[in-house]
Write a structure and sequence with these properties.
The protein is an alpha/beta fold. The chain is built from 20 helices and 30 strands.
């Protein structure tokens, strides 16, 4: 039914709501009541079921497929501009591509405070931002003379952005080569009109304080909006609005910032583009890097991917000429130098009669000593928090396994003394048993080491050194990460023990030694991307050494039992491209991404049988497609249904099936079929949770 309601001054709007139903919902827009005409992108309150909810107007129309008498009215409009057109279009694309409703994509990405309409009145007037105090060591970007390589890149990018055409650039530069400095100089040239806006994305919050400072200094007269999950609701809501109204010219944030409304977007930078944190791992499992490229294309602007160790996907696209490649091959600061990388063969160490104590070899201990004597700092990287990864009974072989997950519970020392067992997957916490639950033996032994044990051991060996541990546990309270990193930068610390948190972007000035312990575990992962990740991580952490004149002749020592493994071999020669060429060849032979496109279908249930059963039934329907009237593309293959490498998490048993295709288009067709089949199968097995994940980064 359709009636022209112009006479009634009523129009119909189709609203996206954050529910897993793939459709828009129709409402009346009563302009005389609302005082405004309807517009795509408007944030509104509408009645939905028994509640009033916040949604986004996607279409304005004069017709509805529903009975007009039953349509309800839009209740109110948020006191801010409509969301930018490119964002809504990107949301529409992402909804199809990631197979989620547009409401799940767009509404759920709006800051919580803006999703509560009772807060709107207070949000209308943003709070005044307190002035950031300047960091003493902060780089004065304006004063730094770019070197020739850097200048050339700024010129190339500036020329490209003035053409107002879409292009993806990959800036590959060794750590410390001035990638940040280079792109900030380019962005300064992009921001011509006072209304121009740029987006800079970075992987994690702990990276942003120093960068935020650099950005503020590079653009003293511009307004900066910072977006990440560590902000208070109010601060985030204000930053989001500053981007949406165009008040902020620079938007700096983590992956969530790709979902910000930026009406006058002129350039995008994705720093550390290879970083896993760009992939959302729950809800709408989007890749912020991939969406950044989509959004740049939509806006006909330049997107710059930046990394010392590009993802194989981006690197391959650059080699193929789809992306344009820019390279920085030298450290920016003249005094800085590349560290010497030593792959320390632990088997060789033992043969030479050297000892390994608490996971640290004598040679590494000697190197720490030498570094302390030079008055320089040491970073010890171990990607395991806690004291010991497992507690065991020597008498009967009992291990501290989690009752809800297929994982060990980790022994943690508590800040106020004592210790407990904690599962890093489900969060379960238990007391340490007095004696073995199986045999009663009272001698339970911690096996292996985590950051806490290394910290304790180093404190015993180097009793005069100031030692600091940086991991998720020591930085749990707000502001503590900043404080700890501040202490490192200010030189109050001699030895830092930390997880991957310490490897990221920090521009440490006095690190003379980086020690890596226990990296081998990643070599044997089932995940084909594990070695790529290990390589990137090691390159990152190695890059923390020798960043200034204070830390010349710095050293990186990597302990391993497998010195000839590819990540170590190429790291030693600082050969990023060599590593990528070899990895790329391997992928090509077996047809893995970037030579194919993948999607994972996950299912989980209390019992593995149900999870597997649902996936198997779905697969059977697809295979019997003629009978069911589907036409699954011939090029698309489906693996067997298998239990996941980690079967149990938090009491749920998990299974998966992998779908592969030579093209994105065929994969899309297949996934749309799969979605329908799974919805249908799920009605038969109600308790099974499932989702489709496009372009998975962890398998
Ligand atoms: P990246 O992002 O590649 O790791 P940064 O942009 O953080 O590198 O720069 C690393 C360090 O080198 C910074 O302290 C920066 O100030 C310095 N630097 C970069 N380029 C130059 C230059 N042309 N002259 C002097 N110092 C530089
Ligand atoms: Zn026992
Ligand atoms: Zn658990």
């Amino acid at each position: 039914m359709s009636i022209d309601h112009k006479n009634n001054q009523k129009t119909i709007v189709q609203v996206a709501i954050d529910v897993p139903i793939n459709k828009l919902f129709d409402y009346f827009w009563d302009a005389s009541e609302l005082g405004q005409f309807p517009e795509r992108g408007r944030l509104v309150v509408v009645p939905f079921g028994k509640k009033d909810v916040v949604g986004i107007v996607i279409n304005v129309s004069e017709q509805s497929a529903y009975e007009l008498d039953k349509l309800k009215k839009v209740i109110s409009i948020a006191p801010t501009n409509s969301l930018s057109e490119d964002l809504i279009s990107m949301g529409e694309f992402a909804s199809t591509y990631y197979q989620r409703s547009i409401g799940e994509v767009l509404v759920s990405s709006i800051p919580v405070a803006w999703r509560k309409s009772d807060k709107w009145a207070t949000l209308e007037k943003p709070k005044r931002q307190s002035k950031q105090k300047a960091h003493e060591d902060a780089v004065e970007l304006r004063a730094i003379q770019l070197n020739n390589e850097q200048k050339e890149i700024v010129e190339t990018l500036s020329a490209a952005s003035s053409e107002k055409k879409f292009q993806t650039y990959l800036l590959q530069g060794i750590t410390g080569s001035g990638k940040t400095l280079t792109y900030l100089n380019w962005l300064a040239r992009v921001l011509v009109d006072p209304t121009d806006q740029v987006l800079i994305m970075v992987p994690e919050i702990n990276l942003t304080p120093q960068l935020e400072q650099s950005v503020r200094e590079a653009f003293p007269e511009k307004t900066l909006a910072v977006l990440h999950s560590g902000l208070t609701e109010r601060t985030r809501a204000d930053a989001w609005m500053a981007a949406n109204t165009g008040k902020a010219q620079i938007i700096l944030g983590t992956r969530m910032s790709i979902m910000a409304s930026i009406p006058n977007l002129k350039a995008i930078v994705v720093d550390e583009e290879h970083d896993l944190s760009y992939k959302q791992q729950e809800g709408v499992r989007y890749s912020a890097r991939d969406l950044a490229i989509w959004r740049a294309k939509k806006n006909e602007i330049i997107v710059l991917l930046v990394s010392a160790t590009p993802s194989l996907e981006s690197w391959h696209a650059a080699v193929e000429g789809k992306y344009k490649r820019l390279t920085l091959s030298e450290r920016g600061s003249k005094e800085a130098s590349q560290p010497i990388i030593e792959i320390l063969d632990l088997k060789e160490e033992r043969r030479a009669g050297k000892k390994i104590n608490n996971g640290i070899s004598d040679s590494l201990t000697d190197a720490i000593n030498a570094t302390l004597n030079k008055g320089l700092q040491t970073l010890i990287f171990i990607n395991r928090r806690g004291y010991s990864p497992v507690l065991s009974c020597e008498a009967c072989g009992w291990l501290s396994d989690c009752t809800k997950c297929s994982a060990h519970m980790v022994l943690h020392k508590l800040p106020r003394g004592g210790s407990n067992l904690c599962c890093h997957h489900c969060g379960l916490i238990k007391y340490i048993p007095r004696s073995c639950p199986d045999c009663g033996n009272s001698d339970l032994l911690p096996i292996g080491q985590g950051t806490q044990k290394i910290e304790q051991y180093l404190a015993e060996v180097f009793s005069n050194a100031k030692i600091l541990r940086i991991d998720a546990d020591s930085t749990r309270t707000k502001g503590s990460a900043e404080e700890l990193f501040g202490a490192v930068h200010d030189g109050q610390v001699d030895i830092v023990v930390g997880t991957q948190m310490i490897t990221k972007g920090h521009d440490y000035q006095s690190v003379g030694l980086v020690g890596v312990i226990d990296a081998d575990a990643s070599l044997f992962s089932q995940d084909y991307r594990a070695s790529e990740r290990l390589f990137a991580q090691l390159m990152q952490v190695a890059g923390r050494a020798g960043r200034s004149g204070r830390s010349v002749q710095s050293k990186v020592i990597i302990q391993t039992r497998y010195p000839t493994a590819a990540p170590y071999k190429y790291l030693k020669n600082n050969d990023v491209d060599g590593f990528l060429v070899e990895t790329c060849e391997e992928r090509k032979v077996v047809g893995l991404p970037p030579f194919s496109y993948q999607a994972l279908i996950h299912a989980e249930h209390r019992t593995l049988g149900e999870a597997i059963g649902m996936l198997k039934d779905a697969a059977a329907v697809v295979k019997n497609q003629d009978k069911h009237g589907y036409s699954w593309p011939e090029t698309v293959s489906m693996s067997d249904v298998v239990p996941k490498a980690m079967v149990r998490i938090a009491g749920k048993e998990r299974a998966q099936v992998l779908i592969e295709s030579p093209t994105r288009q065929d994969l899309q067709v297949a996934l749309e079929i799969m979605q329908l089949v799974l919805i249908d199968q799920n009605t038969k097995r109600k308790g099974v949770g499932w989702y489709i994940e496009r372009d998975p980064v962890q398998i």
